[in-house]
Amino acid sequence: MASTTRIPKARLTGVYGAVVKRISRKMFGEVPEPVEVVWHNRKVLNLSFTVGRKMQKWHECDENLKSLAHMAVASLVGCSFCLDLGYFHAYNRRLDLDKAREVPRWRTSEAFTPLERDVLTYAEAMTQTPPAVTDELSARLLGALGPAALVELNAYIALANFMTRSNTALGVESQGYSAACGLAPLAVATTST
Question: What is the pLDDT of residues 143-159, one digit of tens each?
Fold first, then answer.
């Protein structure tokens, strides 16, 4: 696969580089492009790794809801890498793959419950510039999820924006993780109304 990144990928070197390569290959079969690009600034890379590890310990909000929210952000921002990786994670975490496939066209799909639609709406509303979250939507989610889960969902979406926008700006694109899991064909985004 030819590199499309706006910053050239770095060669992972040294003991730390060997560890990162080994872990990446175990998890993904290869080193993800964002790791190779961000390797140029290890402090930024370490922040990303630390945040990712800490996010994995959050359990107040349902994993399916967080996964759908992250994919909704990726779809709206246009981060093919994050969307592809989202399908890969949904597959490996045994989440609802039928719903994961439908996220890019969630507005027209009948696959989602009212709560899931509210989560997808919230993810997109947080991603808008300026954010377009309404009091009514927040109240519905607060009633359905409770304060701890809504705070977690909010932080998860904010961090998904950090990741998707960073990858998109760096020119990182899909690496075919979903195809490797047999998840193709995937839905294509429809025009939002």
Answer: 999 999 999 999 999 99
Q: Is the pLDDT of residue 2 over 60?
A: no
Distance CA 7, CA 25 (A): 22
CATH 3.40.50.300 matches 63-180: no
> What dihedral angle (degrees, nearest 10) is formed by the CA atoms of 8, 9, 10, 11?
-130
Q: DSSP character for 31?
A: -
Could you tell me the two tokens for 26?
């175990």
What span, in angstroms and rounded, lies between the C-alpha atoms of 42 and 52? 15
* Cα angle for residues 73, 78, 80 (degrees, 5° grid): 100
Contact 123/160 with Cβ under 8 angstroms?
yes
Q: Three-state SS for 85?
A: helix
**Within the chain, which residue ranges are assigned CATH 1.20.1290.10?**
63-180
State how far Cα 84 lies from the chain centre. Answer: 8
Q: Determine which of 35-39, 68-72, 186-190 has the lowest per-residue pLDDT on average.
A: 186-190
Sequence-distant (≥ 6) Cβ neighbours of residue 125 within 8 angstroms: 131, 132, 133, 134, 137
Confidence of residue 1 (pLDDT cuts 50, 70, 90): very low
Other C-beta atoms closer than 10 Å to the C-beta of 42 total: 14
Neighbour count for residue 141 (Cβ, 10 Å): 21
